Amino acid sequence: MKLSLAAVALAAAFAAPIAAFVLPVEAASMMAMKPAAKSWTAGDLVITGAFARATLPHAPVGGGYFAVTNNGTADDALTSASSPAAGTVQLHAMSMQNGVMKMQELPDGVPVPAGKTVTLTPDGLHLMFTDLKQPFVKGQAIPVTLTFAKAGSVTIELAVGDIAAKSPGSDAGAMSGMKM
Amino acid sequence: MNLRTFRVVLWALVVVVALAAGYLYIFMKPESGRFGGGDYALTTGTGQPFTAASFTGAPSMLFFGYTHCPDVCPTTLSEMAGWFEQLGAEGKPLRAFFVTVDPERDTAGVINDYVHAVSDRVTGVTGTRPEIDKVEAAWGVYAKQVPLKDGDYTMDHTATVYLIDSRGQFQGTIAYQEDSATAVAKLKNLIAKG
User: Mind telling me how many Å the CA of A58 is from chain B's nearest CA?
Assistant: First the structure.
């Protein structure tokens, strides 16, 4: 019986690392968006919580994030964006698939259904600024003009936070080690 | 030993062999020795040689990224800086390597400036395209250029932090945006292994 116990223990010893490997400790941090100081209106749309992240040296790209609420009864869509701060502003969807970060351009834009709020975040839909004229620096406000299919255009300002900011005016928590 | 005990032992052995085979299949790459091994020859941001042997001597974190990366790479670097901060003196032996998947744009000087803007504790690593391909294959990293309509490109890439002990053996991973307390616990565990 001692032998079988040893065998079971051995089996457990082999199984443990496999279990550790198969069961990922995914901790999707659900960050509550703080109420933003500024909001903008275009027709039935209200835009809040607009921010961007400070960029690192040699990174001529940056992300833009905000929430848009459609208070109307007709579906709308964000079709394009532009900014004097960047050569181009594209609409992107980022996703994690089995640990691989995948970026997808959205040529048809971002739907904003009637009665719904769509949030652009660092972990999902976002504005991607490429060919930055200058790095984004914490404390700056980056103007960006959003064009919607029905509501038309509106220019908002993204408040630039830390390099890993998760909401307007937030500290990422892990930033205390940041050299500035 | 009666027949019943013998049967139990036999079945336990079957399970052990099956699990051992599974373990070997997942963690070992017979063609290249240990996981992460290989003959890749890279350089750090300050021009020092970097090879598979660079992982021995002290525990390491390994991340693959690139500088034209809007979200994941700055976030991970910032998290690494935070982990070092939380580890304090305990984290002294720990090293961190940021290997570019975009060597065409990330020269040594570029990657060095980029990582050091966030933390002195992270070493940038680059190399020629064939050598970067080798290190990606060694660590099972997925990286692919995705063209953008303006002629530019972005990269889809593995965003996991690999944990490697001082013998160069792969010990585990930290997932993208894993809970900070869990990440620090894993690093303490890695450092304790020596």
Answer: 6
Burial of residue A133, with CB atoms counted within 10 A of its CB: 0-12 exposed, 13-18 middle, 19 or more buried: exposed
Position A142 confidence tier, pLDDT thresholds 50, 70, 90: very high
Which residues of chain A make contact with B78, given a CB cutoff of 8 A?
162-164, 172, 174-175, 178
This model of the complex carries an ipTM of 0.70
| pLDDT recorded at residue B31 | 43
CA angle in degrees (0–180, nearest 5) for B113-B115-B116: 65
Instruction: Determine the residue type at A152.
Output: G
CB contact under 8 A, B157 and A63: no
**Assigned fold of B39-193:** Glutaredoxin (3.40.30)
Domain boundaries, chain B: 1-32, 39-193
Tens of pLDDT, residues A9-49: 555 555 544 444 443 333 333 333 444 468 999 999 999 99
Q: Is A95 on the interface with B (CB under 8 A)?
A: no
Mean pLDDT (chain A) is: 81
d(CA A107, CA B149) in angstroms, rounded, equals 9
| A58, A103, A163 ranked by CB distance to B118: nearest | A163
| Inter-chain CB proximity A101 and B176 less than 8 Å | yes
Q: Return the closest-CA partner of residue B75 out of A161, A15, A118, A8.
A: A161
Residues of B in contact with A18 (CB under 8 A): 19, 22-23, 26
User: Is A127 exposed, middle or buried (CB count within 10 Å of its CB: 0-12, 13-18, 19+)?
Assistant: buried
- The pLDDT, as a whole number, for residue B63 is 97
**pTM exceeds 0.90 for this model:** no
Is A130–B148 a contact, with Cβ atoms under 8 angstroms apart?
yes
The two tokens of residue A179 are 């050299």
- From the number of C-beta atoms within 10 Å of its C-beta (0-12, 13-18, 19+), residue A174 rates as buried
Q: Does A2 touch chain B (CB under 8 A)?
A: no
Cα separation, B61 vs B191, whole angstroms: 11
